Amino acid sequence: MKINQYICxxxxxxxxxxxxxxxxxxPRIGAPNQQTPTGAPETWGxxxxxxxAPLFREALTVYNQDNQLIDKPYGGQxxxxxxxxxxxxxSEPIFRAAVLPxxxxxxxxxxxxxxxxxxxxTAKKIVTMDPGWPFATAVxxxxxxxxxxxxxxxxxxxxxxxxxxxxxxxxxxxxxxGFIEAHGHPVMGGVAIxxxxxxxxxLRNPYGPDFxxxxxxxxxxxKLKEYVAAAKTPDQTILTWGYDSVAMGKKKPTNIxxxxxxxxxxxxxxxxxxxxIFANSAAIKKYGVTNGQLAKTVGAGRNPDxxxxxxxxxxxxxxxxxxxxxxxVLNPKQGLYSLRYxxxxxxxxxxxxxxxxxxxxxxxxxxxxxxxxxxxxxxxxARIVHVADGITFxxxxxxxxxxxxxxxxxxxxxxxxxxxxxxxxxxxxTSLGMQLxxxxxxxxxxYKGLFMFNNKQDFxxxxxxxxxxxxxxxVHSNGSGGNQITLDSLEILQAEHPRFDHRFxxxxxxxxxxxxxxxxxxxxxxxxxxxxxxxDRADINANQxxxxxxxxxxxMASLIDQDVVVALHSDTPVGVPSPLLEVWIAVNRVxxxxxxxxxxxxxxxxxxxxMKMVTIDAAYALxxxxxxxxxxxxxxxxxxxxxxxxxxxxxxxxxDIGVVATILGGRPTLTSExxxxxxx
Length: 680
Fold this sequence. Notes:
It holds the Pfam family Amidohydro_3. Keywords: Signal. This protein is an alpha/beta fold. A hairpin with a 5-residue loop joins strand 10 (300-302) and strand 11 (308-313).
């Protein structure tokens, strides 16, 4: 026994030495020509929470001053880890390690009956995602959990000895485990996508026809005129979202063009980059933008006479015009509408559980109030899994951050779940703020990678105590440079404190190499990727990063072939939550603009494997595969009812399959029930 311990200790020591040497040999903070800057140039956008969150936080502060709703939240893009880890109580360690308890698993969810009666749902086909018992035609549910699955004959031992009822409502349909959104942003994403849209691609609307998208400046003008015509007053602010200046081309609108649309209604175009803003003169006047402010703000566009030209490019410039109108929609009433809006979208797409991969990043109190009303009620339509934003928790709670996260984990239930912690490596994919390894960007003067920490050592310091405590860590990592930093950091953490089944997850994994895929496998990590990087951006990004890298975005098949667990997600508002569309992209990899198949050898040719990416593998990535993701005895009775089986139709038809209903804890909701803003 002692010899074995000695050998293991020697091996881990050798691994540690190798990791340190490896780290010294490859001191990566991105490619050599991609140094971490102290601020973002005018040409950068983001399209992700890394920049959206500070804007929300400051807008909430504006709202707080007027209404005294909640405290000013912690903010900051480049965290000072040493400052955050500084303990006021010198008698305590910087972080107190805690024994990580299991996630609570209530015997009966609050949204099911307690009478012990069995309900049997029948279907033409039930696809269980349990490889040992893959198909069924009936599933028995009691107290919100799955009692048994098989045929009606298989269920007889239970039915012969207990009261039961048969629900044949879906007898001619197909049932799958409820879809799981592995990475979303319900609060922030809900606010963005519920505003009047100007998106380049079509956008789903839970309460009416889909928005078709605007592809030209002329279409954009026509849509804005519709919004102006629908305004209740001549001076009502029209705050829109999703104008895609990257996809539309280099020319950006000015106040001169926007004034022609409306000289009286304040018009604000919130770009898909999420920190580019375009405004007309009425908006500039209403929200008090002065020439003096413009003169000292990087990214604030000016005319020769010093007045605003209506362009506010970059986070600092965006604040000049955006904080007050955004604060107007970040009140509890509008926030509740937005969260219900995105919840309706999820229900209609078959989602029964969503990950919230930035919990606390906007404002804990507001988030908790909204989430409790939408996800925490007996008749809620979905569950939510909160993944704490590590930097926010460190800023709010200092040396008690981990203790606070552990307490939240213990306080959860089967509807509002707390599990894991999230950090950010590099910046966003869609606006090309991600870090790329050599050769970088084709136009390096226009696009530059951004690492979200001051250096890799701070990145490691931030993650280390959470890793050592046993938390599952998720890292937002987009470019090949960001992915390499993340993987090298995981290698060091594993050498210092080896862990099994840690489920360290690279979120997005946008641009990667085959070597990085191998390293993911070797280190036991997971990947949760965004398929919209292929369908929406590959056609656009080829001119900036090359055809091969643009097409290979969001690798899938090559990872799955190595038995790496891969989940799919939308990262709303990057994409609208739609698992069948995500599976369609994974299977076909077709560009929306060109119709070209991007990196055909990365297609997931086995549709069953693609469906696992939005069911059991998504549950695994959230650390919840013990209770979600498959239809097997003991798990929560969460299902999605489909018109057809995605495995039985032509691959190009998968995205068009109708979602009939969701079933949460044994309680069905038809998609037709959430088609109105008044849904219950």
